[in-house]
Amino acid sequence: MSDKFPSRVLEHLRVRAGEVVLERAGQEVTGAGMLSLVCRATAALRTAGAGPGSGVALMVGVTAQGFAANLAAHVVGARVSGVRPGLTADQLAYLLDERIGWGLVDAATPVDLVLKARPDLVLVDVDRLTLDRDADEDHDLEPRGRDADEARITYTSGSTGNPKGAAQTYAALNADWPSRTEFHSDVLADLGSRLDRYLLHGTLSSAVMLDYALMTLLHGGRLVIPERDAPFPELVARHRLTGSIITVPKLLALLAAVRDEGADVSGLRGLMVSGSPLDPRRYAEALHLLGPIVFQGYGQTECGLISMLSPDQALASEAAMTSVGRPLPRNQVQTRDDGEIYVRTPQQTVGYINQGDIEREQAEVFTPDGWIRTRDLGGLDAEGFLHLEGRARDVVIVNANVYYAGPIERVLATHPSVDSAYVVGVPDETTGEAIEAFLILRDDTPTELLEPGLRRAVTERLGEAWVPRGFTVIDELPLTPGGKPDKKALRRPLV
């Protein structure tokens, strides 16, 4: 069997030809049916002129056809850029650069905005792919990706400006962990075994979402696409879900629903928390309320999944509970003199591809000796668990002194009335910047009664200079399109 992506996925679909691998709105798709969709999408792309090295933008909703089209674009050896929904015409024009000649679209795609940004783009409508017969086994599905070619462009959140596209080659994609089960650690294999009915949601432009979808399939699970948006506990009950990937804010909302409303999510067996570190106190609460089902992962766009922590490890060791797990077997991790974590992984990207001041940013992240600077602070303990102590650039500079947001957030979150805390820097005429804290509370305690205790706790743990200038209670945390805390939105009213 070839190791070229996605050959192992296609072979697995052949093995599961008669089994259901995906369901949506009452429709069930077997392995043979998914192969049929991949065949037709591959033929459509080749008919449109796409082949090895062609730039293809993925702009489709979460459907069986969209999932198949993603695989097909890699079969033809294209350079696939995942374009998330909700972008403006200007943002689309920025992302749909001259290297992209084809676009995969469907009913969810704002085709008018796409053509306004790139009127010369060749569009392939994946909604025309049908499921009226078995797989076209006579069609050529031999992957054509060339090792040195760019295979997948994954965009950063754009929290510091326009999104940066990180390029992963076919050589790196071929070595990536989701379709190479022989390289799965015990923790990855444990999680995979729990994803019998995995919620496929969000956007197929997300490399993370695709990774866990592939992991589910190769461990014998089924992808479940909800027919409409609904609160997560409702989706769990309606679709009999056993697993999903979830961000920290959504996990906290789930815990509140279980704790305060008695939501029944007892069918869940594996929840993967991703996107940002989970506070140890919240992790312990999650394991108490939900049971030993919560996994925590740590990774970045530039290097993929770095480490993973299982609930069994967290419950067995206090050191593990405060970590983000052990690095995956083939990953290398080191902490350099400044306390920053550097990593090297088989699946890491080779650099950024967008226009602008990319050379400077690339030099800050990609080292000449092949390591990636995560810009996170921390290191490995004696048991091999990786600990994060803060983000190097999530800082507030007061009177020319640097204060990291992470330690302040963790102290504030230890207060019994505080559900979660978020710290940002805002302009200050006297000190340059000032520290401001935003709180989501667990009860109705007035802020003026909370402040003395919060200030005292930060002073005792970190020092008086770390105490926030002000505290603002919010009902809901604003999120970026990628599901992470949107600190720009928090900061905006105070600037």
UniProtKB/TrEMBL annotation:
Species of origin: Kineosporia corallincola
Keywords recorded for this protein, A-Z: Ligase
Domain AMP-binding enzyme C-terminal: 408-484
Listed Pfam families: AMP-binding, AMP-binding_C
Gene3D superfamilies per the UniProt record, alphabetical: 3.30.300.30, N-terminal domain of ligase-like
SUPFAM superfamilies xref list: Acetyl-CoA synthetase-like
InterPro entries the record matches: AMP-bd_C, AMP-bd_C_sf, AMP-binding_CS, AMP-dep_synth/lig_dom, ANL_N_sf, ATP-dep_AMP-bd_enzyme
Residues in AMP-dependent synthetase/ligase domain copies: 16-352
This protein's name: Acyl--CoA ligase
GO molecular function: ligase activity
